[in-house]
Amino acid sequence: MLERKARExxxxxxxxNFSGSVLVEVGDNVILxxxxxxANVELSVKNTRExxxxxxxxxxxxxxxxxxxxxxxxxxxxDDKLSSYIKDYPNGENITIHHLLTHSSGISNLNLEDDxxxxxxxxxxxxxxxxxxxxxxxEFSPGEKFSYSASGYLILSYIIETVxxxxxxEYLQENIFDKLSMKDSGYDFYKHIIKxxxxxxxxxNDELVNSDFVDMRIASGGGALxxxxxxxxxxxxxxxxxxxxxxESLKLMFTNHIQINQYVHYGYGLFLAFGEISGKDRHMNxxxxxxxxxxxxxxxxxxxxxxxxxxSNLNDKTIFNKVSSGIGNIVLSx
Length: 334
Known about the structure:
The chain is an alpha+beta fold. It has one domain (2-332): Beta-lactamase. It is built from 10 helices and 15 strands. It has an 8-stranded antiparallel β-sheet with strand order 2-1-15-14-13-12-11-10, with helices on both faces. It has a 3-stranded antiparallel β-sheet with strand order 5-9-6. The longest helix is centred in the last third of the chain and has 16 residues, at 317-332.
């Protein structure tokens, strides 16, 4: 049955003109781990399971785990006030780390269409970006409701740096990537030579074009990482196996902290869904990501002991959603 499911998924990906890499695990069996389409069209380089993709907002899982590691080390607390780390932050005495982790701080998102050129020339652009966030009006009072805020995770990456005395990328490298042997993951610095890094593409009037350039430092802890399907599989297995954070911290990541809608809550760095999926009520812990040239999703179906990782270097919502829902229907069918 698993071989049949793998063949059906492969057929779906080929027929959908999917570009990227996919890994599917059922129980302890990785039934598919393959690349599709091109990592670089101009150079005729194919995607493989070792291709490195920008994972965008899946980064938030790593940022949340890093914060919880620092809690375990008693270097910070989840109820710490933002004003403890950025003294002049507006309303900072009412915003906690918990609020930042759960998108309930009321801090609005940066407009990623803005010009960040001058800020990114600064010695510490993270501080410049936070100053830009500080100048924006609040959407609501802290703790009032959920509103997705990549800016909140940008601030969390600054808190990680302040507490650990390491840069965000150094902290993740030493405390997560190296420890889990995630050798193909890291911070997507555009200046670095990163072997097997995929180029990003868009469709314009059904024609493939190169995506716009984005300096991922503007996202930092909210979306700046790259990885592979194989490395994200190591991450999933290690996280669930309490090798990243302890049992209590993992429970916090998987707790329904704030409601988004009837079926979805937010934990720490994760969307937590429960409802009808592929004909049956299921729990699905996941995070998706997207941006210029890339789309991604990392999904764990706890009741079915199933994991699905999809990384794409084609930012096309129609193709990606077709593939994502199609794989789910195939792998979860009886």
